[in-house]
Design goal:
Length: about 110
């Protein structure tokens, strides 16, 4: 169950990162509210998952999911470049997440 909650925390991190971008420096009300709400929920889920998952694994997976998701949203929605070095870097993050999951004692 902790892994599912950690996945939800990571997805919420993607939501708040995208909403923060849309808030234009917290100058737009609704994206700012979505950012802060998603942050609180994401942190809460992360804290819950850390009750049974190792700190290093949980935090690295959480940030990795957020980084990969923000990367993909940036390309798909915001028109950011998908250059080979950027895609390779994202692939390495994904490989790290998979290795952490496979090596976790939980």
């Amino acid at each position: 169950m902790a892994w599912i909650v950690l996945g939800i925390a990571g997805l919420l991190e993607i939501v708040w990162a995208f909403a923060m971008k849309q808030s234009i420096g917290f100058t737009r009300l609704w994206p700012s509210i979505i950012t802060l709400t998603a942050m609180l929920l994401s942190f809460g889920c992360l804290a819950w998952a850390m009750r049974s998952l190792p700190l290093g694994t949980a935090y690295a997976v959480w940030t990795g999911i957020g980084a990969l998701g923000a990367f993909l949203i940036g390309i798909a929605v915001l028109g950011e470049p998908a250059s080979l070095p950027r895609v390779a870097g994202a692939g390495l993050i994904l490989a790290g997440i998979i290795l952490l999951k496979l090596s976790s004692p939980s």
